[in-house]
Amino acid sequence: MKRSMYISALLTVSVGTVLFVTTEVGRSQSWFVKQKCIRCDLTRADLERRNLQSINFRGTNFTFANLQETNLSGANLSGTRLVQTKLARANLSNANLDAANVVNTDLRDANFQGASLQSARVTQTNLNGAQFLGAKMRGINFSETDLKNSDLRNADLLLANFSNADCRDANFGGANLQGANFSGAKLQGASFVGANLKNVAFPAGFPSPQ
Prior knowledge:
By secondary structure, this protein is mostly loops.
């Protein structure tokens, strides 16, 4: 069945390029005017399993929102606030999350293939089993984040911060890790085959991969 394309039981106020969505967005079959929701307040919105592909959500607040298994491929999520957000198994392939603020969020098994997360803050977050194949993540902050079993092959992680992160069994094969910081990180079982490890700071006592 096709999703409804009308706005129902939803109060929207448009001010310039800003669209504020404030009422029952998660319980209705509402859509976003002109395929954009810039700097919206979607706190606690229930958008589980929705198709939000290629929507412009720049600067939107998704605190406590439910986006589990939602399709956000190609979406603009730059500068968004994703605090305690449910995003397990979400499709974020080719999405733009540059400078996003992601804290204490569930992103287990999420797909970030080809996505951009440059200068994003992704801390104290569950990324167990997440896919980052070919993602652009220069200057990302992954401190205190769970990256167990994640796939970061061929990702650009120049100057990334992995301090105190759990990277056990993660795959960094072919990734650009130049200048990355792994101080205090757990790296048992992690693979660095073919990665650029120039000036990487590994935990004390950890044998630098060849």
